[in-house]
Specification:
With 318 residues, this protein is of the alpha+beta class. The chain contains seven helices and 18 strands. Strands 1, 2, 3, 4, 5, 6, 7, 8, 9, 10, 11, 12 and 13 form a 13-stranded mixed beta sheet that branches. It has a three-stranded mixed beta sheet with strand order 15-18-17, covered by helices on one side. A hairpin with a 6-residue loop joins strand 4 and strand 5. Helix 2 crosses helix 4. The chain starts with a helix and ends with a strand. This is FecR domain-containing protein.
């Protein structure tokens, strides 16, 4: 039964004009709706208030006679139907209908610091997009991230802070941590500086992280692995450095791609290498490539720019 037909039947029932077949049809539809209503949990003060208001509006206009069944069960079901459809819709509109989406982005070689309405501070790495709704503080404080960001979350035990990244959720009450989740990456990384951080996917919790913990979650199959990282190194990029310790060549190239917005094409296994680098973020791309070429060793590498792609070759050590 579509919405228009249902409303017409309700009007006829309130006026005492329903035929027996129409009442049976209305009962049948309400039975189905009542069975499905268990999927919605209106357990909030706001919804309870709306229920009372809706019931008060329906009952005074309902006649006390019906030729086939007792009135109150039908009235209750009609009230439930209106409550389920209109009250929930009204509640959701009141909560979210007037919300606006705030989008903050950074370009290549750009680091940006922002403060959220709750007082939390976020540093956005190059090539990053952060989204959140206003009003911000509701049941949860939710943001959506593509890229890399460092979070210093203001503590609020009543309103958990949630970061959504490609279906993976990071939930905290008040702590500081870093998330690396670029679209082109195969994994999402979360590393903790202070406090406790819960990382999960839908109803599955991967881990509860504490300071120096890092989790790497594969996007494709949601497998995860844990390791440890120096907390002082986690947020160094927020103070103007590109810092890597014991990184493979693959990790080095990935970092340069994220910061400078370039593409590399490699011609050998880039899982090799062991780089420890500290580069000033003010360096141009050419300057950064020159330094990496100079310090590279096993493998010794050289870069060659062809059109918009940077090719990476292994070269002999002189």
């Amino acid at each position: 039964m579509d919405d228009k037909v249902f409303k017409e039947l309700v009007k006829k029932f309130q006026a005492g004009e329903c035929t027996e077949k129409e009442i049976e049809l209305l009962y049948h539809w309400l039975d189905i709706l009542e069975a499905d209503s268990r999927l919605i949990d209106p357990a909030t003060d706001e919804l309870a208030s709306l229920k009372e208001q809706s019931l008060a509006n329906i009952l005074p206009h309902t006649k006390q006679e019906t030729p086939t069944r007792k009135l109150w069960p039908v009235v209750g079901k009609i009230a439930a139907a209106f409550i389920l459809v209109s009250s929930v819709a009204l509640y959701l509109f009141q909560q979210y209908g007037s919300a606006k989406t705030v989008i903050v982005s950074t370009g290549n070689q750009q680091i940006k610091k922002i403060q959220l309405p709750d007082g939390s501070q976020i540093w956005l790495y190059a090539g990053t997009t952060l989204e959140y709704n206003e009003p911000f503080v509701q049941k949860e404080r939710v943001v959506r991230l593509k890229g890399q960001a460092f979070f210093d979350v203001k503590r609020d035990t009543l309103h958990p802070f949630v970061v959504n990244t490609f279906g993976i959720t990071t939930t905290v009450l008040g702590t500081s941590f870093n998330i690396n989740a670029y679209p082109q990456n195969t994994a999402v990384q979360v590393a903790v500086v202070s406090g406790k951080v819960k990382v999960g996917y839908t109803r599955k919790a991967f881990a509860l992280l504490t300071p120096s913990d890092r989790i790497i979650v594969q996007k494709s199959n949601h497998t995860s692995e844990l390791d440890h990282i120096d907390p002082s190194a986690i947020k160094r990029w927020t103070s103007g450095e590109i810092f890597l310790r014991n990184a493979s060549l693959k990790e080095v190239l990935q970092t340069l791609e994220q910061y400078y917005g370039v593409n590399f094409k490699t011609h050998f296994n880039t899982n090799e290498g062991n780089f420890t680098l500290k580069l000033n973020q003010k360096l141009s791309l050419d300057q950064a490539l020159d330094i990496i070429q100079l310090v590279s060793y096993q493998p010794k590498i050289r870069f060659e720019i062809k059109e918009k792609t940077i090719h990476v070759y292994r070269t002999k050590i002189k």
